[in-house]
């Protein structure tokens, strides 16, 4: 017998033994075994294909868990989106007009308007100016508008673009030197004072003259230009097209204002050297409240409330200009921060009623859950 045949015989032997053993069992035992086998086949029939079925159930269950809203602290305020290409087109158009004004010059009537605007800025920048002086300067501007417009809207737009370019240049010079030039006051009035009052200045690297005072402007070039245009239009009294501000420019400005709200913050700390400011925070003088004292916490809470009330105002102003902005969602976040949880929940619910599906739906659901939970904790 060959080796292969021997292996084949050995493989068949257990089967033969099993067959002989089965024959040796009693009929009752054999019948019971057949019943057990049939029962097992019956259960297998019900469980056939269980692996893909179980996976499907698991996936469906996971999706259901993810879809159920969970309470999330409303910490993220939705900010408007300004189209970068639209901002670039507006910037390029203003730059082209500024070059034309510099290369081709301006009509005498348009130059007179420019001089009147600069004279108004000087009065506005003077902290000791009277109301009568400001009104007289404004009257001169308004008297110059008509003759300038007679030269055409485009001629006046070139004046605005040229002055805006000069204003931006002087702002960058201030950042580099820390010095406020006469031209910056002429074109921006008390702009640097506005930046300081609202903590819109940051400390940067020491300039060529040394020092580390706060003089880095928080806003970018697009926002800086929009602020100038709006102030210029308010002084001249020209809000109509083509002197208005485009929607994407408004969005860029409101994005900045919502992120850097006016409020109770003071610029005094920004004017102090960083070492002195740090020491003052870490080692308060005797008798003065420290940063962690109840009075300091109260002042911080008041400043926070002032900021959120300012945000609520700007949210409504933006929604009036941009219907696509999620007004109620944003109001819900600000109201939650103010501790007005019932009103916050109502705002989130209104957003979901108006936008049952959308980019902010899950976020609004999570915020609503958090507001409802906090509202339930309030005493009645």
List the helices and strands and how they pair.
Blueprint: H1 3-24, H2 27-47, H3 50-67, H4 84-104, H5 108-125, H6 131-149, H7 153-177, H8 182-188, H9 191-197, E1 201-203, E2 214-217, H10 221-236, H11 247-259, H12 268-271, H13 274-282, H14 294-321, H15 327-337, H16 341-354, H17 361-377
Antiparallel strand pairs: 1-2
Helix pairs in contact: 4-7, 5-6, 5-8, 7-8, 7-10, 10-11, 11-14, 14-15, 15-16, 16-17
Descriptive tags:
2 domains, 2 strands, 17 helices, mainly alpha, 2% strand, Serine Threonine Protein Phosphatase 5, Tetratricopeptide repeat, 380 residues
The helix/strand order is HHHHHHHHHEEHHHHHHHH
The fraction of residues in strands falls at under 5%
N- to C-terminal distance = 99 Å
Number of helices: 17
Please state the structural category.
mainly alpha
Helix content: over 70%
Instruction: Compute the CA-based radius of gyration.
Output: 37 Å
Average pLDDT over all residues:
81
């Amino acid at each position: 017998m060959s080796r292969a045949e021997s292996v084949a015989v050995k493989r068949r032997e257990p089967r033969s033994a099993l067959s002989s053993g089965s024959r040796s069992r009693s009929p009752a035992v054999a019948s019971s075994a057949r019943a057990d086998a049939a029962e097992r086949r019956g259960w297998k029939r019900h469980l056939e294909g269980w692996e893909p079925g179980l996976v499907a159930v698991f996936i469906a269950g996971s999706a259901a868990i993810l879809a159920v809203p969970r309470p999330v602290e409303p910490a993220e305020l939705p900010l408007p989106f300004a189209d970068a290409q639209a901002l670039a087109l507006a910037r390029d158009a203003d730059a082209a007009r500024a070059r034309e004004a510099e290369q081709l010059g301006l009509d005498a009537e348009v130059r007179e308007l420019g001089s009147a605007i600069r004279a108004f800025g000087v009065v506005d920048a003077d902290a000791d100016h009277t109301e009568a002086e400001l009104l007289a300067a404004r009257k001169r501007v308004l008297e110059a508008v008509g003759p300038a417009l007679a030269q055409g809207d485009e001629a006046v737009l070139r004046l605005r673009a040229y002055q805006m370019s000069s204003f931006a240049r002087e702002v960058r010079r201030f950042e580099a030197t820390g010095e406020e030039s006469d031209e910056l006051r002429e074109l921006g009035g008390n702009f640097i004072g506005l930046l300081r009052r609202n903590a819109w200045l940051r400390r940067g690297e020491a300039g060529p003259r040394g020092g580390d005072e706060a003089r880095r402007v928080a806003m970018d070039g697009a926002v800086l230009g929009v602020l100038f245009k709006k102030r210029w239009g308010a002084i001249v009294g020209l809000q109509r097209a083509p002197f208005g501000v485009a929607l994407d420019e408004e969005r860029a400005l409101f994005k900045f204002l919502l992120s850097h709200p006016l409020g109770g913050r003071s610029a005094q700390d920004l004017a102090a050297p960083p070492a002195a400011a740090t020491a003052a925070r870490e080692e308060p003088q005797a008798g003065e409240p420290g940063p962690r004292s109840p009075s300091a916490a109260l002042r911080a809470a008041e400043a926070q409330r002032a900021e959120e009330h300012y945000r609520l105002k700007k949210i409504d102003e933006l929604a009036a200009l941009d219907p696509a902005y999620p007004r109620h969602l944003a109001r819900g976040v600000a109201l939650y921060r103010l501790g007005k949880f019932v009103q916050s929940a109502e705002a989130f619910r209104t957003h979901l009623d108006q936008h049952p599906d959308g980019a902010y739906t899950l976020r609004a659901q999570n915020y609503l859950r958090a507001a409802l939970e906090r509202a339930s904790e309030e005493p009645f």
